[in-house]
Write a structure and sequence with these properties.
Elements: H1 3-34, H2 39-42, H3 56-69, H4 90-120, H5 128-149, H6 157-165, H7 168-175, H8 178-189, H9 193-213
């Protein structure tokens, strides 16, 4: 990617990325608080301030590198602390805390799709073209984050959903992967494997949203 293209991409993608990670992490903290865990609230992480959720490597460096080399956009934010033992029904409530993040990304993807549709309705407007570009990035980023986080690999949200739904013995076995989960994910990301897994699902969700909004 040329430098001017990279600068243009960053200018269009920056706001959608900040919204995506901020609301994703805040959603985890809010739902955890709702079900009895005050950890994120006490640490000031139920916040719409992006600076509280930015991880310099996962939120800035890694996405920039993936933009430069091409392929599927990849990155992460500073995870909101959740003490699952403090939830009223730890195993059951874990499901809702985990699913809150991907659900927030789905809502944001739909919101960006609506903005794209509205911007498309005013083609002569000065702001239409940058809004279209920003909205397109907003849809892509949130769909990728949603699908990525639903992979059944702890500590991803999908892994916690699986732990919540599986019988105790199988859930315990899966939970033992968690210390190595991020290393596994990074390994998959630097090989074509993660793309093979995610791209068909990302394209399917993107197409469904496109059909829903006629874009």
């Amino acid at each position: 990617m040329q430098l001017d293209q990279l600068i243009q991409t960053i200018s269009l993608a920056a706001i959608p990325v900040l919204f995506a990670i901020t609301l994703h992490e805040a959603a985890h903290g809010y739902v955890a608080r709702h079900f009895g865990d005050m950890t994120a609230y006490q640490q000031g992480r139920i916040s719409l301030n992006p600076m509280r959720h930015i991880d310099p490597i996962g939120t800035v460096l890694v996405p920039l590198l993936t933009m430069l080399v091409g392929g599927i956009l990849f990155g992460w934010a500073k995870p909101v602390p959740v003490n699952f033992a403090a939830l009223r029904r730890p195993k059951k409530d874990m499901l809702w805390v985990a699913i809150a993040g991907p659900a927030s990304n789905l809502v944001m993807a739909l919101g960006w799709a609506l903005l794209y549709k509205l911007a498309w309705s005013f083609p002569g407007n000065y702001f239409a073209e940058p809004l279209l570009g920003m909205a397109e990035w907003g849809i892509k980023i949130n769909v990728v984050l949603m699908v990525l986080n639903l992979l059944p690999l702890p500590p991803l949200d999908g892994g916690r959903v699986a732990i919540s739904l599986l019988p105790y013995r199988q859930a315990f076995q899966l939970s033992k992967i968690e210390p190595y989960g991020m290393f596994i994910l990074i390994f998959l990301a630097v090989t074509p494997v993660l793309g093979w897994i995610l791209l068909p699902l990302v394209k399917l969700v993107y197409q469904l949203i496109s059909v829903l909004f006629g874009i």
